[in-house]
Amino acid sequence: MSRLVKTLAGLCVALTLAPSLTVPAFAADYTKGVVQKVDAKAKKLTIKHEELKNLDMPAMTMVFFVADPDMLTKAKEGGSIEFVAERLRGKLTVTEMK
């Protein structure tokens, strides 16, 4: 019985510590780009960007939707940005920008 109690006690300790062993969330990988066009009416940005590793896309110029319309006021044509793009509901979308 003593051996069973020790095993159960060890299991309880392991389960208590388990949440602290979780993998941390990954930070978003920002991509550098230059804003070519701001289309506020359509809520889109045209960006000449470096490789988008998370979308497996080479460097190119392309149009993105924006997740937050406030991004359009921050983006200036010809301005350099760093951004995160994801495929949301089938559309390439800028989800973060600095």
Question: Brief description of this entry?
Answer:
The protein is built from 2 helices and 5 strands; from the N terminus they run αβββαββ. It is α+β, with helices and mostly antiparallel strands and 98 residues long.
Please tell me about this protein's structure.
With 98 residues, this protein is an alpha+beta fold. It has a domain at 31-97: OB fold (Dihydrolipoamide Acetyltransferase, E2P) (Beta Barrel), CATH 2.40.50.320. The chain contains 2 helices and 5 strands; from the N terminus they run H-E-E-E-H-E-E. The chain has helices at 2-17, 70-74; strands spanning 31-39, 44-49, 60-66, 80-88, 91-97. Strands 1-2-3-5-4 form a 5-stranded mixed barrel. It is elongated. The chain starts with a helix and ends with a strand. Mean pLDDT is 85; it is low at 20-24.
Instruction: Summarize the amount of helix as a percent range.
Output: 10-25%
Q: In whole angstroms, how far apart are the ends?
A: 61 Å
Largest sheet: 5 strands, mixed, barrel
Oligomer: single chain
- Give the C-alpha Rg: 23 Å
CATH architecture assignment of the domain at 31-97: Beta Barrel
CATH topology of the domain at 31-97: OB fold (Dihydrolipoamide Acetyltransferase, E2P)
What's the average pLDDT?
85
Class from secondary-structure proportions: alpha+beta
How many E strands?
A: 5
Order of helices and strands: HEEEHEE
CATH class placement of the domain at 31-97 = Mainly Beta
Helix count, DSSP H or I runs of 4 or more residues: 2
- Contiguous low-pLDDT stretches (5 residues minimum) are 20-24
